[in-house]
Amino acid sequence: MADEPNILTTEPVTEPVTEPKNWYSDENAEVVKRTGWNGPDDAIKSYRNMEKMSSGMAKLPTPETSAKEIRAFYQKTGCPENPEGYEITAPEGLESLRDEGIESAIKQIAYDQGVPKQAFESIVKGYYEKLNADMHASREAGELALKTEFAKEGEYDEVVTIANRFFDTCSPEFCELMKASGLANNAIVVKEFMNKGKQTMSDTLVKGTVEGEKKETPTIRYPNSPEMYASGEDDESKAGRAYHEAKGFKYATSPTG
Length: 257
Prior knowledge:
about 50% helix, about 260 residues
């Protein structure tokens, strides 16, 4: 009997080796590498964490968003519950420039547009600070202009004194407005006040010297009241008549006539 081939063998049968298949597609390989995910479970956990974080975030309104939802979005981003929730604080010294009507109007506009409280108040504060800085700069420029124009010794002080004399006759409301706006230090305004001050100087202490003489003339106590010197032969009366006649006043009759 011919020998038959032996189908039994003691050698182990080996399967062909194949590389394990990735659990992600090639297009997501970079993401997996960057995040360090080791498997699908890591990716799912990461997604769940992202959901938790985004659940508390405000969703941007769309054309289909209701007014109520838009208002809720505004409040989540810092808008107050009503316009009165905005606070406006002007720098010290600018209170007189504030206008409650205008401030209420801009508060309403900010509220309607959903402007956050912090942003609104920062904008308004910046506006007032800029206004205050501009006023200080204007004051310094006005003072420099006056000192340049009235450069003689004592001339600038005289201008300011006369201007302040007229300024003090104005109403407190006007004075406060002029100071707060910075116009009280404007060179043009100061010179105008000086001219008005010279025209309306009170009847006190005006002295002068008679031309050609070195001695001082008597004090003219009533420089704006010529009738006070219509009669009298004392030195003050004579000096008073001469003073007013020099200014163009004509007495009806001669005091000695």
